[in-house]
């Protein structure tokens, strides 16, 4: 970026809200994805929509890439500034603007921490259900851009299901307003939906209106342990088949339990092969009935032991244990490469088995945890980037995991996004027609390709590996 | 001549452990726990994740060393709140110490810093007699009103303005007096690590510590030859000096028989409890000796709880609660030694006051060793928001368990003009006031 453009951009926010030093550029060169790093030219913290419009106009005039960044917890290198340019921060646009109790909406700026939204609405008797594991750190802007999921996805859906309207600064600098406090709205294309999960490639999301639901009256939390992965997986499909939809139905394998216990020290048994964390919420009578039936199913499927949370604190501790699983796994090896291959929930047992076979085939350590109830698994390869030979096997294993997921009717990513990391595999899932349609959309909205370039669309798709079934 | 760049990078390769750096998987769970991240308006550069990325980038030669990188390391409080928040178990405290060691080893220190480091480390903290002399000097200032003159001479100008507030907050010098006799038959033999600051500026607290322990049936031994724990040196990249102090202390406490080695300073206690890490690469005998030392470490609040202080406090005649008491965690007591509940348990047992938890009590107060001297701006910002919380909960007594925090709280009380309504005290003094006085 030339100096004159840099000066123009800095003048918009003022120099005290621009980061230009070596240390600052390095600190915004990465997100939570292993092995992806690129330095931006400039990091800006605007305070208003107008400032963002100005910034985008300058970027467009000089073809400067622009990457919107929340807290940098992305797991697919979506917020690494791959092509340099400007990193846009929302640390000054982190206010809750309005809580509308009559229309059940909350309007927020993108920089608000997700957890803060949860706390504010819960104090008023509402629930904002999406609860990604990083909710204490992640911003709502990032959640919307990635269409984040979470532990309650099974019953309540994901971020998309709660975004009612958006304000977006388009790549031209114009301001687009979508949706509103409406339950019904079919005025043209659903642009709100288009922007949710667009990973910063179609514009800058600058204001978000979220829908809320009344908070459930009660919640119960159950931990169940098994000697085999299959028993846990079968429990999941049997619960769903019994027409019960738990709020949370989470899974952890042995390796994950070990590292989580190592950190939390809450007495999880480390001699079992699998664990389910099951929560149900709602009316007390219904919750009691559901939990009783779930308990029976667990026993039928051979659970070795079960443990009911005795207090809200204990329940919170157990879901925390699940939320920190990925980070805790980093205890095992220097590098953690996480996937979120997702399958229809009836295929959970098959997918878990396939992952085990892939780990064996490529002599890799893969630990798996995830949202078993909605088929969203997080097989995590524990490796060391400094070992070139092993990394080559990791590449092959990843490709095979994706292939397996797609063969089972699944997808390459359930909630983390494509970013840069999974872009070579996107075509496997959506085909040539899918890529062409998405590219046409991108080109129409961002013809200069300044919005988070290098994400979603790869220069070259990976050659698909052929996997023998059986 | 080797360039500074090459020197720094080589020094990082030598001093900063690559495997430890690789433990960080950049999930960001440390961010909400980091006071400098919060107080810098969520600047990743001022976060544990950012600093670790910088360490790695310097070590790998990804970035050229410059002042901005050094500043990011300098601004770290070393409070280690990121460690309990880290599911991956990154040893951040060790990494930042290795980093500071790498920097100090590689480059010539700026004159200002050098003067201060020499003043502080070589003279004061290494030599108990000098420390006592320094306190006498401070006492002398206070008593004679010489402060103004000294300030004019400019010695204090070497220290940032914060030092002036700090000096105003210094406690009154203790008067010597005899200790009370034993109250219970001796059950526990305790060696007391007196600490350099605690044994000089806060001598009264040390005396109270001994009296309380004796009251609860301990024989308190003061091993001769002990000196400053070395934490301040260790945290500032003066690792060799820290090791020298450690060695002296390990020896001083090795030839006496006792059940515990107790300290009443959270910062010292944390460093003492990690002495073994300093000697990992040394001879097995020395390492074993260090380990023996480490295994006997306990902080005063944990020991008091073990000795039954709660029952003792409950025996006191019940009175109406007259004040609100709160507790500011010592970062190292909390984050390194995991002592969170004990001080609170003790305070809750006191009947003449109501214990109110202060929001953010777990966050560093900005004292952080000599951080408040080196980084006055960030330290002030942190302290200001801390005092806001004190006002919000209407606490009239702020309890701490570490001399640095205590001084910082005293500075805060002074600065906010709260000295007529609020006081900062060491836990020991507060309990002593209830039980013995």
In short:
Chain A has 470 residues and is α+β, with helices and mostly antiparallel strands. Chain A has helices at residues 3-13, 22-27, 49-62, 114-123, 140-146, 153-156, 191-195, 229-241, 254-264, 284-300, 312-323, 325-329, 348-361, 388-407, 426-445, and strands spanning 18-19, 42-44, 66-69, 86-89, 96-100, 105-108, 126-127, 163-169, 175-179, 204-211, 213-214, 218-226, 248-253, 274-282, 305-308, 335-338, 365-371, 376-383. Helix content of chain A is 36%, strand content 20%.
Largest interface: A-B, 42 and 33 residues
* Low confidence ranges of chain B: 133-163, 173-182
Average predicted confidence as pLDDT of chain B = 82
Which residue ranges of chain A are poorly predicted, with pLDDT under 50 across at least 5 consecutive positions? none
CATH class of the largest domain in chain B: Alpha Beta
| Biggest sheet: strand arrangement of chain A | 15-12-14-13-17-18-16
Estimated radius of gyration of chain B? 22 Å
The count of helical stretches of chain B stands at 25
- Could you give the distance between the termini of chain A? 53 Å
CATH topology of the largest domain in chain A: Uridine Diphospho-n-acetylenolpyruvylglucosamine Reductase, domain 3
Q: Structural class of the helix and strand makeup of chain A? A: alpha+beta
Q: What spatial form of chain B do the alpha-carbon principal axes imply?
A: globular
Beta-strand content of chain B? 5-15%
Question: What's the number of helices of chain A?
Answer: 15
Percent of residues in helices of chain A: 25-40%
**CATH fold-level assignment of the largest domain in chain B:** Rossmann fold
Description:
The complex is a heterodimer of chains A (470) and B (437). Chain A contains 15 helices and 18 strands. Chain A has 470 residues and is α+β, with helices and mostly antiparallel strands. Helix content of chain A is 36%, strand content 20%. Chain A has four domains: 3-89, Uridine Diphospho-n-acetylenolpyruvylglucosamine Reductase, domain 2 (2-Layer Sandwich); 96-214, Uridine Diphospho-n-acetylenolpyruvylglucosamine Reductase, domain 3, CATH 3.30.465.10; 218-328, Alpha-Beta Plaits (2-Layer Sandwich), CATH 3.30.70.3450; 332-445, Alpha-Beta Plaits, CATH 3.30.70. In chain A, a hairpin with a 4-residue loop joins strand 5 (96-100) and strand 6 (105-108). Chain A has helices spanning 3-13, 22-27, 49-62, 114-123, 140-146, 153-156, 191-195, 229-241, 254-264, 284-300, 312-323, 325-329, 348-361, 388-407, 426-445, and strands at residues 18-19, 42-44, 66-69, 86-89, 96-100, 105-108, 126-127, 163-169, 175-179, 204-211, 213-214, 218-226, 248-253, 274-282, 305-308, 335-338, 365-371, 376-383. In chain A, the strands form four sheets. In chain A, strands 15-12-14-13-17-18-16 form a seven-stranded antiparallel β-sheet, with helices on both faces. Chain B has 437 residues and is of the alpha/beta class. Chain B folds into four domains: 4-106, Alpha-helical ferredoxin (Fumarate Reductase Iron-sulfur Protein, Chain B, domain 2, Orthogonal Bundle); 111-169, no CATH class; 188-302, 3-Layer(aba) Sandwich (Rossmann fold); 311-435, Rossmann fold, CATH 3.40.50. Chain B contains 25 helices and eight strands. Chain B has helices at residues 4-15, 18-22, 35-39, 48-60, 67-74, 82-85, 92-106, 111-125, 128-144, 147-153, 162-169, 203-215, 231-235, 239-254, 266-272, 275-278, 284-295, 300-306, 309-315, 331-335, 341-348, 371-374, 376-392, 403-415, 427-435, and strands at residues 188-193, 218-221, 260-263, 297-299, 323-327, 353-355, 397-400, 423-426. In chain B, strands 2-1-3-4 form a four-stranded parallel β-sheet. In chain B, strands 6-5-7-8 form a four-stranded parallel β-sheet, sandwiched between helices. In chain B, strand 1 (188-193), helix 12 (203-215) and strand 2 (218-221) form a beta-alpha-beta unit. The longest helix of chain B is centred in the N-terminal third of the chain and has 17 residues, at 128-144. Chain B is globular, with a radius of gyration of 22 Å. The N and C termini of chain B lie far apart (66 Å). The relative contact order of chain B is 0.11. Chains A and B meet through helix 2, helix 9 and helix 12 of A and helix 4 and helix 5 of B.
């Amino acid at each position: 970026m030339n100096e004159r453009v840099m000066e123009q951009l800095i003048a918009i926010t003022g120099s005290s809200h621009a980061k230009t030093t070596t240390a600052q550029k390095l600190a915004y060169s990465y997100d939570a994805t292993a092995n992806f790093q690129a330095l931006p030219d400039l990091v800006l913290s605007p305070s208003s929509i107008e400032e963002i419009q100005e910034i985008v106009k300058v970027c467009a005039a000089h073809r400067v890439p622009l990457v919107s960044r929340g807290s940098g917890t992305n797991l697919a290198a979506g917020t690494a500034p791959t092509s340099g340019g400007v990193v846009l921060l929302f640390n000054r646009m982190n206010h809750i603007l309005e809580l509308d109790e009559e229309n059940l909406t909350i309007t927020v700026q993108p920089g608000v921490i997700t957890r803060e939204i949860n706390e504010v609405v819960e104090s008023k008797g509402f629930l904002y259900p999406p609860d990604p594991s990083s909710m204490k750190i992640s911003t709502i802007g990032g959640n919307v851009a990635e269409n984040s999921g979470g532990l309650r996805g099974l019953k309540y859906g994901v971020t998309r299901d709660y975004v009612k309207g958006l304000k977006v600064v388009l790549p031209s600098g114009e301001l687009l307003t979508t949706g509103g406090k409406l339950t019904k709205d079919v005025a043209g294309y659903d642009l709100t939906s288009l922007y949710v999960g667009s990973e910063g490639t179609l514009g800058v999301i600058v204001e978000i209106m979220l829908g809320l639901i009344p908070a459930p009256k009660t919640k119960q939390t159950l931990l169940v342990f098994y000697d085999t992965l299959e028993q846990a997986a079968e429990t999941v499909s049997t619960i769903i088949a019994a027409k019960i939809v738990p709020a949370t139905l989470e899974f952890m394998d042995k390796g994950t339990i070990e590292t989580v216990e190592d950190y939390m020290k809450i007495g999880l048994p480390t001699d079992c092969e699998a664990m389910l964390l099951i929560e149900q919420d709602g009316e007390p009578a219904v919750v009691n009935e559901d939990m009783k039936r779930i308990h029976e199913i667990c026993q039928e499927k051979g659970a070795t032991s079960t443990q009911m949370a005795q207090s809200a604190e204990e329940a919170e501790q157990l879901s925390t244990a699940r939320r920190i699983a990925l980070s805790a796994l980093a205890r095992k090896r220097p590098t953690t490469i996480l996937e979120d291959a997702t399958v229809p929930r009836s295929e959970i047992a098959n997918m878990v088995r396939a992952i085990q076979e892939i780990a064996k085939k490529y002599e890799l350590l893969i630990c798996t945890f995830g949202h078993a109830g909605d088929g969203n698994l997080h097989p995590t390869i524990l490796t060391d980037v400094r070992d070139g030979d092993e990394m080559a096997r990791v590449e092959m294993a990843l490709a095979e995991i994706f292939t397996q997921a797609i063969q089972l009717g699944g997808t390459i990513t359930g909630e983390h996004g494509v970013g840069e990391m999974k872009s070579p595999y996107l075509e496997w899932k959506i085909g040539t027609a899918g890529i062409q349609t998405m590219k046409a959309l991108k080109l129409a909205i961002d013809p200069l390709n300044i919005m988070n370039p290098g994400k979603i669309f790869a220069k070259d798709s990976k050659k698909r590996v052929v996997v023998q079934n059986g | 001549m080797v360039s500074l760049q090459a020197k720094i990078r080589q020094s990082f390769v030598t001093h900063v452990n690559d495997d430890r750096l690789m433990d960080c998987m950049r999930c960001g769970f440390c961010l909400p726990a980091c006071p400098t991240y919060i107080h810098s308006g969520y600047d990743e550069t001022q976060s544990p994740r950012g600093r670790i990325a910088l360490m790695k980038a310097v070590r790998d030669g990804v970035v050229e060393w410059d002042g901005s990188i050094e500043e990011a390391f300098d601004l770290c409080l070393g409070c280690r709140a990121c460690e309990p928040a880290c599911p991956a178990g990154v040893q951040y405290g060790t990494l930042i110490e290795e980093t500071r060691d790498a920097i100090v080893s590689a480059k010539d220190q700026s004159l200002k810093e050098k003067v201060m480091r020499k003043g502080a480390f070589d003279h004061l903290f290494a030599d108990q007699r000098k420390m006592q002399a320094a306190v006498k000097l401070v006492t002398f200032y206070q008593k004679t009103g010489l402060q103004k003159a000294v300030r004019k001479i400019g010695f204090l100008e070497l220290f940032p303005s914060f030092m002036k507030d700090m000096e105003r907050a210094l406690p009154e010098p203790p008067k010597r007096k005899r200790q009370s006799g034993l109250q219970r038959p001796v059950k526990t033999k305790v060696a007391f690590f007196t600490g350099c600051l605690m044994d000089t500026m806060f001598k009264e607290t040390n005396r109270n510590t001994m009296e309380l322990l004796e009251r609860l049936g301990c024989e308190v031994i003061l091993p001769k030859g002990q000196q400053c724990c070395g934490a301040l040196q260790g945290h500032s990249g003066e690792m060799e000096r820290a090791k020298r102090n450690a060695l002296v202390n390990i020896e001083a406490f090795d030839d006496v028989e006792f059940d515990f080695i107790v300290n009443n300073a959270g910062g010292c206690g944390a460093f003492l409890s990690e002495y073994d890490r300093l000697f990992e690469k040394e001879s097995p005998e020395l390492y074993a000796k260090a380990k023996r030392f480490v295994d006997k470490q306990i902080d005063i609040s944990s020991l008091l709880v073990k000795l039954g202080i709660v029952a003792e406090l409950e025996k006191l005649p019940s009175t109406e609660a007259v004040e609100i008491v709160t507790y500011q965690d010592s970062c190292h007591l909390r984050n390194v030694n995991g002592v969170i509940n004990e001080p609170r348990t003790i305070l809750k047992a006191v009947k003449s006051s109501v214990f109110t938890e202060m929001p953010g009590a777990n966050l560093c107060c900005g004292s952080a060793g000599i951080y408040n001297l080196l980084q006055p701006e960030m330290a002030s910002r942190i302290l200001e928001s801390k005092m806001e919380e004190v006002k919000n909960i209407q606490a009239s007594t702020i309890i701490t368990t570490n001399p640095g925090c205590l001084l910082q709280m005293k500075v805060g009380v002074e600065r906010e003009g709260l000295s007529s309504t609020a006081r900062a005290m060491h836990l020991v003094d507060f309990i002593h006031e209830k039980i013995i006085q």
